[in-house]
Request: fold
Amino acid sequence: MTPQLRPPPTVVVIFGAGGDLTRRKLLPALYNLFLDGWLPERFAVIGLDRRPMDDEQFRRHAREGIDQFSRRGPAQEADWQKFAPALGYQVADFTASASYAQLAGRLAAREQDWGSPANYLFYLAITPTLFETVARQLGEARLVADPQRSRLVVEKPFGRDLASAAALDRSLTDILAERQIFRIDHYLGKQTVQNILAFRFANSIFEPIWDRRYIDQVQITVAEEVGIEHRGGYYDRAGALRDMIQNHLLRVLTLIAMEPPVSFDADEVRSKKLDVLRAIRPIPRDQVDHFAVRGQYGPGTVEGRPVPGYRQEPDVASDSTTETFAAIKLYVDNWRWQGVPFYLRTGKRLAARVAEASIVFRPVPHRTFPPSAVRHWVPNRLVLRIQPDEGILLRFMADMPGPGFTLEPVDLSFSYEQTFHKAIPEAYETLLLDALKGDATLFMRADQVETAWAVVAPIQEAWAAPAADFPNYAAGTWGPAAADALLARDGRHWLLPTALEKGRPQP
Ligand code: BG6
Reply:
């Protein structure tokens, strides 16, 4: 990157600097951006948290996180020596104005050292109950007064439902301009998710067939093998619908379904995405069971080892009715998508870690070949592989070598790894760099977040009543039987993610 394209001098202030997100994601991302030469020449991080640490201790804490979680592995000593001086720490009480006065002093001292004003990027890696308090305190300390120079990054979850998200939006926009607020959804920073835009709008061949006339259905699976790890306290109040569907899976759906933007202006792209969310047919409140299925894992086996059920996990109520699996069917009511179902599913403790979206095309209108020539017809399927084996795959029928016709499905595939031979940046690297530059394209605008909550609201209401059949799937499987029934009613089935196929393509 040429130096003039680097962001201007910036101080990143991390609220919640002692927490897990900072150690696992934010500091490794900043370090990798530094190694790749993307950070401003004048750059500093100030970590804020309650726990007593001085600058040196914070640097050691940061180093441990980076050594463990950086995509490049442990830091090299020479690189680390250049990066570490940028890190500082302040013990803070997020509710006390004195902490903000102290922060203001540190920021002013930095600017004096640099001999120039700096941009401020405030990152809220804290419990959502403190979002509003911190924003208010920053406002009162006049640290977000200049919309050109100060930005606030807000982590998920952004609200628990439509009403709380709207209330949070109101309080934040009392203090900051909308363009200062960067609501993060790390799925939007994934290279393979961003690439959906490139695939659709930098190529012409698929666009003419990208609609209801040629597409039969769209399936989006984001499966996790892990359980809830050490996050029982958070997860038991969230559940799969809030944790994954309302944000990550709806974002992927939006990118697949949106109309071509006129330009890559942040508001233009976000408005086109919003149009999709607004077109999603509301799920009738009395028919939620026909559109949505929930599940909770019981004990089972993952990678050959026995694992406990959800209710036996730490910090989870022994009679919890929180869902760890959700599958839903949505329709997008517009000209392009009328009648095409979008099936979304996600869950913890499923059979594998895999995220992919399949666009399944309609079958051929007439079978020219005799039944003896075909063992199984497979409709054309375009697979956007989000993770692992990142890439894109197009499945079609081909004639096998040999006499006569013997048709089998085969794949044309593009793999990031094999094509580019370099590691894909972490989502947080992309998003932090965009936030440093002030580019909000990959961040959520208030209306997008609220409309996404409105989409899931009928399901939230129905699921407020406890499920009688929990747990209803064993850890290490593909979720409850009702998820299969959801598609079977439409004469369809969940497709095995292609990343899990061994050998030949499967039906
Ligand atoms: C987070 C959820 O937003 O996304 C987690 O809170 C989930 O529960 C994670 O595990 C999945 O992200 P990724 O990048 O591992 O697919």
Remarks:
- The pocket of 6-O-phosphono-beta-D-glucopyranose is lined by residues 224, 243, 355 (CB under 6 Å).
- Residues 16 and 127 are 8 Å apart (CA to CA).
